[in-house]
Amino acid sequence: MPSAIPLATYRLQLTSDFDFDKAAAVVPYLKALGITHLYASPVMKARKGSTHGYDTVDHSQFNPELGGEAGFARLSEALARHDLGLIIDFVPNHVGVHFSDNPWWLDVLEWGQASPHAVSFDIDWDQLPYRARGGVLLPILGSSYGEALERGDIELRYDPGEGSFSAWYFEHRLPIAPERYGEILRMIVKEADAAGTEAGRRLLSLAARYTGLRRPNRKEAPGFKAELKDIAGAADIISRGLAAYRAAKDRPAQTLALHHLLERQNYKLGHWRLASSDINYRRFFDVNGLAGLRVEDASTFAATHRLVKQLVTEGKLQGIRLDHIDGLRDPAQYCQRLRRLVRDAQGNAKPFYTAIEKILCEHETLPHFAGVQGTTGYEWMNAITQVLVDARGLDALDETWRQISNRPPRLAPYVKEAKRRVLETLLTSEFIVLTRLLARIANGHYSTRDFSADSLRQALELYVLHFPVYRTYLTHSGPTALDRKLIDDTIARARAEWFAADEGIFDFLRDALTMDLLKPGRPPHSAPRVRRFALKVQQFTGPVMAKSLEDTAFYQFHRLLALNEVGGDPASRGLTIPAFHAAMRARAKEWPQGMTATATHDTKRGEDARARIAALSEIPGEWTSAVARWKVLNAPHLALHGHLRAPSATFEYMLYQTLLGAWPLEGPDASFVERIQAYALKAAREGKEETSWLNPHEAYEGGIKDFIARILDPALSGEFLEALQTLARRVALLGALNSLSQLTLKATLPGVPDFYQGTEFWDLSLVDPDNRRPVDFAAREAALGAVDNPDWHALTRTRTDGRLKLAWTRHLLKLRNGLPDIFAQGDYQPLDVQGAHADHVIAFARRRGRTAAIVVVARQFAPFTQAGREWPAFEGFDATVDITGYTAPHLASNHIPVAPAFRDFPAAIIEARAASATRPSRQRLSA
Asked: Nearest-CA neighbor of 59 among 264, 273, 314, 323?
C-alpha cells in the first residue's frame, strides 16, 4: 500500500494523445525514479479535444478521450502493482459550457429557472436589460446578433431521435423551451402545407393539447417529445416546415420568426465582446466557456463529487488537488464537506492527502482549512528562487530597468493600473453586478439611501484597486480578525485616495464587506443581500488580482523575469539565508506536508529557464552591457511605422531574457523560432500595452514576429547570434548549478516535492502551451538505466544531455524513500556556516528523534566559475558548517569543510545522528 502522505509526486498532463494507458506505461519508470504518488491532471469528462481537462462537462464519468472507465481501471491496476498512490486534479469551481456536451447547462437553457440544475450555476437571471423575462446571456457569436441572424448562421433544427427542437449556432446547441413547441408545430405544418395529412393533423392535435402558460411543463415534456417522435411522417413534415424559420437577409418574415422565437427563450444570444459588460453568470476569470458552479449548494456538491467518493471507497484514490479554491463562495465550508465525504468513504483510519491551488501574495499566510495539508507549492518555489538570486545584483538591474522603461522599479503602480483596466474591460459585468447589489443594499434603509449608485461604484472600485491579496475568507458568521484587519486597512487606503465628500460612504462599504450591517442594534438591511454581497466580493477580487498581476503586470514589468512567477514578487529584493531559514522553520511547524513545486502546468517558464535567468543577478554589469550592444545590432530589424516601434523597448528587453532562458543547450532547431514567436505573441497580448486579446494590433504583432525571425536568422544577425550564444553558454552553466541547488532544496525542505512531467531532464520550456508539449519518456527511462552507479564527475562534463539532473533527482528521491520519517515529519534546524564564502552556503538539518540528515547547498556561483566560463572547482571554497550536536560517519569534528563535501557537485546530503534524542516538534496531520 502506498503511504497516505506522499514522499514525492509526479505530475502528468493527460490528453487524448497521452491517455490512461500511456500513463500506465510510465508507472514502472516513475517507481524506479523514486516517485510514490502519480499526480494526474483532471480525469473527469471534459470538452472534446481538451488539452488540459479543466473544462469538465460531466463530473460523473471518466473522460472517454482518456480511455473512459476501462482505461482508468487499467491505470489503477498498474499503480497498485507498483505500489504507487494516485492524486487527481479536481475542478470544483467551474464546468465547461456552451457547445453541446454539458447536460446540466443544456437543461438550464431549455428550462431556465425551472431546471433542477439552475441552482448549480451562479446566474443573475433578472439582469438582462430590455427583456420582459429573465434569462442568461450567451456571448457565443462571432459577429453581431443581427448579422449572424441575417446570414443564416443561427438555424432551427429538429432531432427526430429525441423529439426535440434546438437552435444551432455552428457547434453550439441552444435547446428550445418546450412551452414553444406548440407554436413551432403550428408554424411548421402551415409552412409544409400538411394540415390535411394524417401526420399533420396529429401534429396539430398534439400542439393543441397543451394550452396555457409554461406548457408542456417539465413533467409533461418527456411524454410530449416521445409522442412527437413516434408520429409517422412527422420528421418529413418538420424538415420541410422548418423553412418558416430559415433566416436570411432576403427572407425578412422568416428572419423575424426565428428572432421572435429566440427572444422567448431562457437565454439571449450576443456577440462575444458583450461578455465583458453584460454577462450575467459567474465565470472562471474572463473565460466565457467556463461557468462557475455553486458547490455551496448541497445537492450540487453531492452530484459533482459522487465519482470521487466512489474512488476513495474503492481505495483507488489517495489524494486530491483542488483547483482554484479561491473561486468558491465558502472554501472553509467546502473543505469541511469534502473531509466528511472522505471519512464516510474510507473511515478515520488514515489521512487523505488534500492540496489546494492557492496563490499566496508576499507575506500572506494560508488559512487553515479542514483536511487540507497545504498548497500546491507556488510560495515555496518563489522562496527558493529568491534565496538563490544574488540580491546585490538587483540594484544594478533596478537601474537598467529604470533606464529602459523610464519608470521606477516598483510593481505596485503596474498592478494598480492593470486592475483599473481589468475593471473597465475584462470583468466589467461582474463589477456591475456587485455595484448594483451594493446600491440596493444602501437603498434598503433611509439612513443610507442617499449614497448614490455612482459614488458607491467609485468607492468599491477604490477598494478593489487597493486590495493587496487575492481574497478574504468570510463565512456566514462573519470575518476572522485577520480578514477584518485586511478589510479595514484596505478601506483606509481607499479612503485616502477619495477626493469627494465622504459622509460615511466608506464606513458603510466596510460594514457591508464585514457584514457588520447585520449586527443587532444597527439599522435593518436585507440580510440575504448583505451576505450575498460580502461573499461575492470575495469571489471577485481573486479574478481581478489574477488577471491584473499574473496575466498583465507580469508581462509588463521585466526587471528580472526569474521573479515573475505565479505567487511571486517581480520587485522582490531577494531573500537572505536567515529569512529563508525562518520561513522553512515556520513551514515545518505549520505546513510540513504541502507540496513544493518548481514547475507546474501554469508556471510562466520552465524551472531551468528560470534558474538561468536568475543567474543574471550575479553578472548584472555584463548583462547590461550585452543588452546595450544587442539593441544596437538589432536596431535595423525593428518595425518602425510613425510612432509604432515593434517590439517596444521594454518588450525587447524581455525577449533577450527569454532567449537566454530558453536557448537550447545543443543549439536552436527549426521549431525554436516558432516557439519564441508564439510566446512573444501571447506575452504581448497578455501585457495589454500595444496589443491585447480583445483588440489585437496586427501591425505591432507582425512587427514582433518579423523582428524575432530576423534576429534569429544567421544570415541576417550573425554577430548578434554569436554574442548571444557566448553569453548563453555561460548563463547555462550558472543556471545548471542553480538548478541543481533548486532541486536539492525542493527534495529536502519540509514539504512534498512535486515533479512536473519531463523536468527530470533540463526544462527550458516557456509558458503554456509550450510547457505542455509531449514528453519523451522512453529517452528518460533509458537514461535512468544508464546511470545506476553515477560518476558525478563524468556526468558534469556531459551535463547538456540532462542525465546529470536525472541522476541527481533519483539520488535525492532514494534518500527520501530511505529516510521517510526525517523528510516527511522531521524538524528543520538551520546550521551555522563560517568562512569567507559563508553567504554562498545554505545549510540545515532535518531531524526526527536521533535520526538526521545534514543538507548543504551552494548558491551564487559566478565567483567560482569565472562568471560561468567553467564548472566550479570547490577546492578554494572557504566555508565550514557547524554541526554541533550531530555525528556522522567519517567526521571527527563538529565542523564540515564544505569544499571536500561538494567535490564536483554544488550540494551534499549527509546522513547523521543527533547526539541526544529530543522530542520532535508536533506535526499537523489532517485526516
From this structure: 323
Number of Cβ within 10 Å of residue 351's Cβ equals: 19
pTM for this structure? 0.95
- Beta bridge mates, 641: 644
- Give the pLDDT of residue 647: 97
Distance CA 115, CA 299 (A): 13
Which CA distances in Å does 34 have to 22, 82, 597, 598, 818?
19, 11, 16, 17, 10
Q: What is the pLDDT, as a whole number, of residue 212?
A: 79
Sign of CA dihedral 575, 576, 582, 587: positive
Cα distance between residue 471 and residue 772, in whole Å:
29
d(CA 647, CA 674): 16
pLDDT of residue 788: 87
Q: How confident is the model at residue 358 (pLDDT cuts 50, 70, 90)?
A: very high
Give CA–CA dist 561/555, Å, rounded: 9
Q: Which three cell numbers stand for residue 905?
A: 557537485
Catalogue the long-range contacts made by 68-75 (C-beta closer than 8 Å, 24 or more residues apart).
Answer: 71/19, 71/20, 71/21, 72/20, 72/43, 74/20, 74/21, 74/24, 75/20, 75/21, 75/23, 75/24, 75/27
**Per-residue pLDDT, 924:** 36
Helix ranges (H only) for 64-168 are 68-81, 103-111, 145-150
Summary mean pLDDT of the chain: 95
Could you tell me if 472 and 538 are in contact, meaning their C-beta atoms sit under 8 angstroms apart? yes
Query: Cα–Cα distance between 559 and 410 in angstroms, integer?
Result: 10
Which residues fall within 8 angstroms of residue 580, CB to CB, at 6 or more apart?
Answer: 383, 386, 387, 842
Q: Which amino acid is at 857?
A: V
Residue range 430-442, pLDDT digits in tens: 999 999 999 999 9
3-state secondary structure of 486: helix
| Total number of residues shown for the chain | 927
Q: Average pLDDT in the 778-799 region?
A: 94
Report the pLDDT averaged over residues 668-680.
95
What are the C-alpha distances in Å from 717 to residues 265, 663, 707, 720, 724?
60, 16, 11, 5, 10
Q: Are the beta carbons of 291 and 111 closer than 8 angstroms?
A: no
Assigned C-alpha cell, 843: 545549510
536-550 CB burial, b ≥16 within 10 A, e <16: bbbbbbbbbbbbbbb
Nine-digit cell string for 110: 431549455
Query: Are β-strands 886-887 and 907-914 bridged in parallel, bridged antiparallel, or unpaired?
Result: antiparallel
Q: Residue 839: which of 562, 612, 578 has the closest Cα? A: 578
pLDDT band at 926 (very low <50, low <70, confident <90, very high): very low
- Find cell 501554469 and name the residue: 602
CB 78 within 8 A of CB 118: no
Nearest by Cα to 316 from 527, 64, 37, 598: 37
Q: Is the pLDDT score of 923 beyond 80?
A: no
Work out the end-to-end distance of the chain between its first and last CA atoms, rounded to an integer number of angstroms: 17
CB of 461 closer than 8 Å to CB of 423: yes
Backbone angles phi and psi of 270, in degrees to 5 = -155, 165
For residue 89, what are the β-bridge partners? 321
Q: Which of 60, 140, 52, 203 lies closest to 768 in space, CA to CA?
A: 52
- Angle 820-359-457 (CA atoms, 0-180°, nearest 5)? 160
SS3 content of the chain, % helix, strand, coil (to 5): 50, 15, 35
Helices (H), 112-220: 145-150, 181-191, 198-209
SS (H, E, C) 643-707: CEEECCHHHHHHHHHHHHHHCCCCCCCHHHHHHHHHHHHHHHHHHCCCCCCCCCCHHHHHHHHHH
